[in-house]
Amino acid sequence: MSTFRSAILLAFSLTARIACAENNASVRIPAFFNPTVAGLNRVQYQLGPQLSPAAKIYLPGNAFYGNATTRWNGAMHPDFAAVVVPINNEDVATAVRYANQKSVPFLTVNRGLGSSTDLNTLRHGISIYLDNLDSITIASDGQSAILGGGVSADQLIKTLAAKGKVAATTAVTCVGVVGAGLGGGMGMYQGLYGLVADNFVEMTVVTTDGSTVTANERQNADLFWAMRGAGHNFGIVTSYVYRIYDNIPTWYVASYQYTHDKVDAVFIELDKLNNGGKQPKELTVYTVFASNPSISNEPVIILSIWYAGPSSSALRYIQPFLNLRPALLTNQTVPYANLADAVGIGIQGPFCQSGMSHASFPVGVQKLDTIHQVYDLYTDLITKHPEFQGSFVQIEAYPMQGVQAVGGANTAYAHRGDNLLVPRLGAFQATYPPSPSSDGIALLYGHRFSSLFHAGDAPGRPLNTYVNYAYGDETLEQVYGYEEWRIRKLKTLKKQWDPHGRFNYFHPIL
Questions:
Q1: What is the mean predicted confidence (pLDDT) over 184-190?
Q2: Which residues pair with 8 in a beta bridge?
Q3: How far apart are CA 345 and CA 339, in angstroms?
Q4: Widest CA span of the chain, in angstroms?
Q5: pLDDT (tens digit per residue) in 319-340
Q6: Pick from 441, 447, 436, 434: which is nearest to 382 by CA?
Q7: Under a CB-based contact definition with an 8 Å cutoff, are residues 352 and 346 in contact?
């Protein structure tokens, strides 16, 4: 493909503003266009007039096309022939209907952090890029807000903070709120308010045929059930009503780093703190195995404790870890709006930057009896494969009170009994340049980590994984639950709402 100059804006009467490449003759025309479209510009001329005047269509060669199709995970590369940037629900519905008429696959993109290998099966499709659907309107009673489908966690947190409010969001703030919620959505407020999915009041959903429906507990209740835990399979959320809460003024944040000889001691204290999934509802704990040569040539254990409240209230929980004499410690008190930025998982932090390859292998567990073997396997990985030095094993221990207050049958999210989420983002969650050979190593070690975490879980428990982190080769039951009624219901609803599999690019229900 030749180099393109800057995009030309084509103005239509009552049409979209469309960005395209000047040298269209050199652009490969995907095969699916050939029967109905004489050239690549035809997608603009056919779809453009049907969209709002402020909507856009971008083609390969345009700078924005590159930005909109660059994903956080360099190993994920769905292939798009065009990017449609809608400004309202009807634009989304129109794009879906157009794709259906042309037998073209489509994928909704919010922040582009999804990492299922299913994404790589989309070829020559249309990206429906929700970046402009970012409105936030707080209700007069201060108990809910109406959000656009493109709102990120960062936008929501900071907008609400200015009004003295908070909401359940993911810990990492470059994630889209609704995208996370479709798979559950874990975060630091879940002990108090439940998952992201538990806070949806109502959704406006564009369905597989381009229709628009309202889904809540009274209207299309089965669809509403499915959207909260398996929603990527059923439709596009263009707006939604979301619960919000009064702000907690300050959070206490502490980080401790330990040398390898403290692995067992740290996890003995973590087990006590987790207390069978009953750790305080204000407390979130992340534990990471990572490389830090400034402290040790062996991997270090990094313990991060985030507490919704003042340091004086947190002290009773952190004192046992101080007694273990960490090699490095930091602590601070921050407002929640600044928390993610303070700990490096904000929108400008290193975790949120795109371009590197990642592979996640999460296992939800209730026990961690094999943690020393996990540490040894991580050491083996970064010793034998230095390109994975920036990778890490991470154990996320969220409070579960708010999650388990919602009945297991109330939503499609299946794993409310897991006290810990163990995503082996570890060996695979960062800094290796995209490389097929490295992808193979990541997969090999990922499965070994999965087996170890599962072996250390409570006897007889099946292997559970978290859909938002899952790699893509897991079974349907591992992702969506082992209850026969649940899988049967999901399959029935899939046939009803997406009979042709148009939403099959993120852990599809097949």
A1: 94
A2: 20
A3: 9
A4: 72
A5: 999 999 999 999 999 999 999 9
A6: 441
A7: yes
Instruction: Report how far residue 227's alpha carbon sits from residue 199's, in angstroms, rounded to the nearest whole number.
Output: 12
149-178 CB burial, b ≥16 within 10 A, e <16: bbbbbbbbbbbbeeeebbbbbbbbbbbbbb
Residue 459 CA to residue 400 CA, distance in Å, equals 21
* Helix (H) or strand (E) segment spanning residue 509: none
CB 12 within 8 A of CB 51: no
Instruction: Name the DSSP letter for residue 432.
Output: B
The two structure tokens encoding residue 166: 């908070």
pLDDT score at 432: 67
The whole-angstrom separation of Cα 374 and Cα 244 is 38
Distance CA 189, CA 170 (A): 9
Structure-model confidence comparison of residues 5 and 81, the more confident one: 81
Both tokens of residue 337? 């709006």
Residue 274: its pLDDT value, please? 86
DSSP single-letter state for residue 426 = H
- Pairwise CA distance, residues 264 & 375, whole Å: 10
Which pLDDT does position 420 carry in this prediction?
A: 57
Residue 487 neighbours by CB distance under 10 Å: 16
d(CA 144, CA 241): 7
Q: Is 303 helix (H, G, I), strand (E, B) or coil?
A: strand
CA–centroid distance for 192 within its chain: 21
Nearest-angstrom CA–CA distance, 375 and 353:
26
Q: What are the pLDDT digits (tens) for 71-80?
A: 888 888 899 9
Element (H, E) at 256: strand 251-258
Q: Are 180 and 170 in contact (CB under 8 A)?
A: yes
- How many residues comprise the chain? 510
| CA atoms of 280 and 309, how far apart (whole Å) | 12
Judging by DSSP bridges, how do beta strands 212-215 and 200-206 pair with one another?
antiparallel
Residue 105 — pLDDT band, cuts 50, 70, 90? very high
Task: Please report the pLDDT score of residue 32 as a whole number.
Answer: 36
- Per-residue model confidence as pLDDT tens digits over 409-458: 999 999 987 765 543 222 335 456 788 889 899 999 999 999 998 998 88
Contact 391, 460 (CB under 8 A): no
CA-to-CA dists, residue 371 to 78, 145, 262, 266, 420, angstroms:
35, 42, 12, 11, 13
Q: What is the SS3 assignment for 351?
A: helix
3-state SS of 433-499 is CCCHHHHHHHHHHHHHHHHHHHHCCCCCCCCECCCCCCCCCCCHHHHHCCCHHHHHHHHHHHHHHCC
- Name 202's bridge partners: 241
Query: What percent of the chain is modeled with pLDDT above 70?
Result: 89
Q: Kindly give, in sequence order, each residue whose CB lies less than 8 Å from that of residue 213, ignoring residues fewer than 6 positions away.
A: 204, 205, 207, 219, 220, 223, 235
